[in-house]
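COMPLEX REQUEST
Ligand: zinc ion
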Amino acid sequence: MPRQKKINSEAELEEFVREVAGDPGARVAKAVGDGATDEKIEKDTSLKLSEIRNILNILHNCGIVEYNREKNMTSGWFTYTWRVNASRALQNRLLMTKKEYEGMRTKMMGDKVVIYKCAKNCSTLTFEEAMDADFACPTCNAKLKFSDGTKGMRELEAKISALEKIVDSKMRLENPLAEAARTTKTS
Ligand SMILES: [Zn+2]
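STATUS: Structure written out below.
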């Protein structure tokens, strides 16, 4: 049996953040934590406010952060307080990994075990498709990397089952009723 890389929710969340928003994204997510305003994030990360907003937008689109908006009655301006939603982020991560897995499985139908993947993970191509695309990602134009399809599938399977466990235990912690519903449904 291949040795499985141990997956924990913090490490998985950080990897997700780094994949979508790089190192600056990881700094912003760390500063956001359980709640922070744009100004606090700016102070903690020393990044430019425009860059911070851009990163927050990406993280929000991936379901990693959420916000509360409050209007200042004197100035009329809105204050945004950001917060990391780890459960939702990991649920999205699980969905995305499943999608990647399905994509890969479709490509591997028949004998097409040679797979080329974008370095940024946005596309998976067969050898023929990669040739047609001159080994550049059709989405972001990054160089395509050769990947061992069978090994990749096994890694994704391990990752999906680990993520399912994490998401499952988080859901049970947050919502005891979900556990009851799940037990009823599966029996
Ligand atoms: Zn790409």
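REMARKS: The two ends are 31 Å apart (CA to CA). Residues 118, 120, 122-123, 137, 139-140, 142 surround zinc ion (CB under 6 Å).
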